[in-house]
Amino acid sequence: MTENRHETHPEIVKRLKRAEGHLKSVIAMIEGGRHCLDIAQQLHAVEKAITQAKRTLIQDHLDHCLEETVGALPRDQRQSIDEFKSITKYL
């Protein structure tokens, strides 16, 4: 398997480490008998951090790997690719 690193990967790692920290907090909160509202707020933070990491990874992949595969296209054919990339922001 070839190495495939992009400039956003350090940012993704940072987000995932943040999620890891939140998740550890959630586990400690549950074990410590904290209120469900507090736990739900922390779980939301974990979910948000992972979602942002996933979104960044997908956008980065489309911006780099898809562009390399497709190559230069005439403007009329380019629109579909650009729309596809734009709609992935809503993942």
From TrEMBL:
Presence of keyword DNA damage: no
Q: Which GO terms describe its biological process?
A: negative regulation of DNA-templated transcription
Xref: InterPro entries: Metal_Tscrpt_repr, Metal_Tscrpt_repr_sf
What the entry lists under CDD domains is as follows: NreA-like_DUF156
Keyword line: Plasmid
**One function term, GO molecular function aspect:** DNA binding
Q: Name one Pfam family in it.
A: Trns_repr_metal
Q: Which family does it belong to?
A: Belongs to the FrmR/RcnR family.
Protein name in the entry: Metal-sensing transcriptional repressor
Source organism per entry reads Sinorhizobium mexicanum
